Amino acid sequence: MPLRKDARSTSRTSLPGNPLAPAAARRFTRAALADWTSLGLLATCTFCRGDEGCSSGSHSTDLLADDAVVIVNELVTNAVVHAGTTVELLCRLEEPSEDPTEAADEPAALVIEVSDHHPGRALQSEARTQAPPGTPEYGRGLQLVAALAERWGITYRSGLKTVWARLSLEGREAGPAQGTEPVLRRGLRAAEILAPATRRTVRDDPEWAGRGALSFLAEASELLAGQLDEDLVAALAGQLLVPRLAQWCAVWLDSEGGPAGGAPRLARVWHADESRSAELRALLEKEPPRLPDPPRGGPVRVPWPGAGARAGAGAQARTGEGMALACRLLANGRTLGTLLIGRPGQSEIPDEVTALIEDFARRIALAIGAARRYTRQVTISQVLQRGLLPSQVARIPGVASAVVYEPSDEGLAGGDFYDIFPCPPGDRWCFMLGDVQGSGPEAAVVTGLARPWLRLLARENYRVGAVLDRLNRLLLDDATEAAESASLMAAAAAAGAGLPDAAQALPEGGQARFLSLLYGELKPLPGPSGGVRCTLASAGHPLPLLLRPDGTVRAAAEPQLLLGVVENVAYESSTFDLEPGDTLLCVTDGVTERRSGRQLLDDGDGLARTLAACAGLTAQGVAQRIRRAVHEFADTPPGDDLALLVFQAE
């Protein structure tokens, strides 16, 4: 594979000596190869070696990345387990050698180096063949490195031990002209080291089972289980199978409702020769595999695609195409789809390979099942969220407003809620910004109660403080009723179980329904000067901040107790005028308690300083500036719901 000489053809990183290092190393290696491909440093397809007319431009990087990731995983794991120090990982592209003194030209290669800082700790080499039963096995990863790499070795320096492996790029050609067998043999050689024996395998080879098998299947499970879209799971399955264990594969996905929901959908077709994918898809759509009932998970031999049509036309059915196996995708007793693979030029498949395919199909099914459960959960949450949040917010005369709402988990209904609505007789507008303790269904129940209660109380012309007083009592009454109901159910269950004292099963109290809330009302001021009068109260909520046009910032309310804690509380409100240019910022604790290590965003009045820098911005500009500050405060995504309201007098 020709390489462009470039200083960027070396990537290195340091990794902590803990169990997270192998996963980080795998991600780093794939990212490095992807960067080199985008830069043109890896640009030639190993199937065609640069010939015109080949449509498969990514095979080389895909195959190289697969082998490199496996090698990196094993070497980094070895360093972490046996050395326990910080690990240094280096990936380097080497151009073909043109040194006339060398016996043979060195082809282009990817060199991987994994170093640790414990050179005195010997590298665990070959697995012990004479070890008694139950003795831990070592060195399985080094056998895998030897199987996949052109050569490998160990280099000792002062305070450093480096294990390196060289993967030749020129030795990876396997195109339509040559067939996929060279690549397939290399993949099977690795599979023989890593894949587990199953109950149907007659081999008595101790090298077939053990720690390496778990490493192989764990890698596949990690790649599949991390996906939350069933079509992406199908695509990844094809990339993992082709061309390592098959020349082509296809995945059908059953509808959610099973047979009553419609015919299976051909979700993905993957062929080692991409130019033949469309032809294969057309054949498979006409002749989907027919598997026997009742459903079972083992592979079943099926006719080669197209053979039946040729036989029906009067021609003799060709039996030399190869071996096609279909495997149902079963999870929790339900059929989710079908996996079909094809291996040309073969009449039989070794039992160990069949068992490996069956194990892999089981993991595909589990990943598809998990993706479907997540999709259902997200759909339910979105429907629930739409019912808990306003479809639109009211436009307040003389006030520009902006809203930002981002739940931390799209799969769960958030605990934050907001609303802006008019109240009769039409001269005032009310707003709320609340945060229920917890998230998910429990928080959604409180949100579903609090928002309509607030609207009802506001429209009954209760003052701001009185609205919070009554909402507090309603929350406490509802929690008491829930506790009494739970107590009765627990007592009945205890009595039915024959407990000596059923009263012992009574809970001490129900789930507390705490709610932090910022509630207020805005009334446009009469006269040409403009502005609005704001009356608000904060119950255990982050205090709202008032920004003046000159950049000064102050708190616009006094702290008070959470709602739903104690009954006899008299909530007080604060009243002030928003003059033209003034901005009121209201946030939930997803903003103020945004964490970066031990530091919070609002430590040392951090939010006030950020808001002061927003002087002169529009309401929408302020909202987006605060949102960006929250996201940029830490490297990790926000772990809590993010909600904020901005009001600016015009």
What's a concise summary of this model?
The protein has 650 residues and is of the alpha+beta class.
Strand order of the largest sheet: 1-2-3-5-4
Largest sheet: 5 strands, antiparallel
Determine the number of helices (DSSP H or I, runs of at least 4 residues): 14
Percent of residues in helices: 25-40%
- Shape, per Cα inertia axes: elongated
| DSSP, total strands | 22
Structural class: alpha+beta
Low-confidence stretches: 1-5, 44-60, 125-139, 173-181, 191-213, 310-320, 499-510
Q: Give the termini separation.
A: 65 Å
Mean pLDDT: 77
Question: What's the gyration radius in Å?
Answer: 33 Å
Describe this structure in words.
With 650 residues, the protein is α+β, with helices and mostly antiparallel strands. It is 34% helix and 22% strand. It is built from 14 helices and 22 strands. Strands 1-2-3-5-4 form a five-stranded antiparallel beta sheet, with helices on one face. The radius of gyration is 33 Å and the shape is elongated.
